[in-house]
Design brief:
The chain is α/β, with parallel strands linked by helices and 374 residues long. It is 45% helix and 14% strand. The chain has two domains: 2-175 and 357-373, Glycogen Phosphorylase B (Rossmann fold, 3-Layer(aba) Sandwich); 178-355, Rossmann fold, CATH 3.40.50.
């Protein structure tokens, strides 16, 4: 079977949507090697985010001068002609979009929708961006044969905001990259401790520094907790500036360290070194960092509502109010002071996270494809 994919994020996005898209191709090409996977990339990549190493994975780029110049037009419309030439049986839009006119081409399609945060929290997005996102997602969800939601929470949002029938939606969870599933040696861990001058004990937080991620509440909690906080994520936003100004005005510089631009292996080792992973986000489509922490056997504190229990399982620690600083302080202190509790949470979390293993996700994706084609 020839399966086509919108590959923009595979080749041009280093983080969330790119990681998801690359992982999908890795899983399918490994567990279902008899298929051919065509990756439709709108423009040649300057950075090699996804080296193609398997004969059943084929990158496709615009051929004509017109399509090379208007590469977004090719991705959104003209790519359908290439799908036909390549005898593509099924097309998967990996990030909420499918080409216009695909449904008239007799090529079956599925689209993954990760979240509708721009609908839930419109004040975080520019008005024009919200209009564009809504039209793209609505068109894709309406015209695709099936819709994949990455969580039950996202499924309910698709039903509510896009008015899509629940019978058309399938939930297929995300996993995480292999690098977070490996056990690293004492020497590798010591090298990371030395490289980043890390304290013996620390709390870890991972993610873009923006209001929805709610880092400021965690920073405020550090005033009352005797440990160190390590934050991994981009700190270029106005919210990041607000967080850093709070740190300076409250003399917390010696208790909080920011890192960015680290490799995935370095991040994986940081997860394994951390005493607790704290993720007080207000809302997510799923919450991949939670999965990464559970594979690392690191106990998780996160938010009770939304999708977080789907990712964290029954044994992670949940906040009733993620903006309640003292509730967060109480949860952190309990885990830090009770080593047996910390080990038990980590063990149970690692057992739970096996439901996101590669073979499970690959099989569920193929089940969706086969359902469409049948």
């Amino acid at each position: 079977m020839n399966i086509g994919f919108d590959a923009k994020r595979i080749f041009h996005n280093k983080t969330g949507l790119g990681n998801y898209s690359r992982d999908i191709i890795r899983l399918l090409s490994t567990y279902y090697p008899l298929n051919h996977y065509f990756l439709y990339n709108p423009k040649v990549s300057k950075n090699v985010l996804f080296p193609i190493e398997k004969p059943n994975v084929i990158e496709k780029v615009p051929k004509s001068i017109l399509n090379k110049f208007f590469y977004n037009l090719w991705r959104q419309i003209n790519v359908v002609k290439d799908l036909k030439k390549d005898n593509v049986t099924l097309f998967h839009g990996l990030s909420g979009e499918i080409p216009i006119g695909l449904s008239q081409s007799r090529i079956k399609s599925v689209v993954t929708i990760h979240d509708l945060i721009f609908m839930r929290f419109p004040h975080y997005f520019a008005y024009l961006d919200r209009i564009i996102y809504f039209r793209k997602f609505k068109y894709a969800a309406k015209n695709a044969d099936l819709v994949i939601a990455i969580s039950e929470q996202t499924k309910q949002d698709i039903i509510h905001y896009l008015r899509i029938d629940a019978r058309k939606i399938r939930v297929v969870y995300q996993g995480c990259q292999d690098v977070f599933k490996k056990q690293y040696t004492a020497k590798q861990k010591e090298d990371i401790i030395t490289k980043f001058n890390l304290p013996e004990k620390f709390i870890l937080n991972v993610g873009t520094i923006e209001p929805r991620k709610n880092l400021l509440t965690l920073v405020k909690a550090m005033e009352h907790v005797e440990t160190h906080l390590l934050v991994v994520g981009s700190a270029k936003s106005s919210y990041a500036k607000e967080v850093k100004e709070y740190i300076i005005s409250n003399r917390l510089e010696n208790k909080i360290t920011f890192l960015k631009g680290i490799s995935n292996q370095e991040l994986a080792i940081l997860y394994q070194l951390a005493d607790i992973f704290v993720y007080p986000s207000l809302f997510e489509g799923f919450g991949i960092p939670i999965i990464e922490a559970l594979y690392s056997k690191t106990p998780v504190i996160t938010t009770q509502n939304g999708c977080f229990k789907e990712a964290g399982g029954p044994d992670s620690i949940y906040l009733k109010d993620p903006e309640d600083t003292m509730e967060l302080v109480d949860k952190i202190e309990k885990i830090l002071l009770k080593e047996d509790m910390r080990k038990e949470i980590a063990t149970e979390g690692f057992s739970f996270v096996q439901k996101f293993n590669d073979d499970v996700i690959a099989n569920k994706l193929m089940d969706v494809y086969q359902e469409i084609l049948s």
